[in-house]
Amino acid sequence: MSEVLAAAFDDLGGADDVLHELRRLESEHLVELDDACIAQADEAGRVHLKQAIGHRLSDALHGRFWHELVHHILHHGSQAVEGEHCKLDRAFCCELSEALKPGTSALFVLVRQASADMLVEALRKHRGRVLRSTLPEHEREELEMAIGMRPPRPASASELQAMMVREGEHEAAVAQQRREEARARRRQEIERLRRGGLRPEDIRSILQRCTDAAQAGHDKVIAYRFPSEVCLDGGRAINNDERDWPASLTGQPRAVYEYWRNVLRPAGYHLRAKILNYPGGMPGDVGFILSWTSYGA
Question: Rounded to the nearest 5°, which phi and psi values hold at 242?
Answer without folding.
Answer: -75, 150
